[in-house]
Design brief:
Length: 144
């Protein structure tokens, strides 16, 4: 039996959160998805709830997703967690790089184009639900 895992999903659009959560739970019924729409709520939840991974939107234009990632990397008890950023972005590399670069610089382990969210679980599984030794460009750039 698969060990239960918990993902914190930070996504401002309820419809998108519901779609992602439904897809992930269908693929892995033992998965617990803790969800929130704001970075402030995510910080609070991370102080109250134990999670195995964090998946966050980048909240353009204010890039609060980058701020959340930086904050997580500064917390001794959270810095080890794998973080996957799922921005909505163009499929043109020149347009994607200004979005993905700050997310990687903030500490995201991978950036996966939001509409390839179904790749997040396979990425976490490949990482054995641990933070990888080095950042990966992610599905976003590999498939543009």
């Amino acid at each position: 039996m698969t060990e239960p895992k918990t993902i914190l999903l930070v996504e401002p659009v309820e419809r998108m959160r519901n779609m992602i959560k439904r897809d992930w739970i269908t693929k892995r019924p033992s998965l617990l998805v803790v969800e929130t729409e704001t970075c402030a709520d995510a910080r609070r939840l991370l102080q109250e709830t134990s999670v195995d991974a964090i998946v966050t939107d980048n909240f353009r234009p204010e890039l609060a997703g980058c701020e959340l990632i930086c904050w997580i990397r500064q917390q001794q008890d959270l810095a080890h967690l794998p973080i996957v950023a799922i921005p909505a972005m163009s499929n043109i590399v020149e347009d994607a790089l200004p979005i993905t670069r700050p997310l990687h610089e903030a500490g995201a382990d991978s950036v996966i184009y939001k509409f390839f969210y179904n790749e997040v679980l396979s990425t976490l599984k490949r990482w054995r639900w641990q933070r990888p030794e080095r950042q990966e460009p992610g599905w976003a750039l590999d498939h543009l």
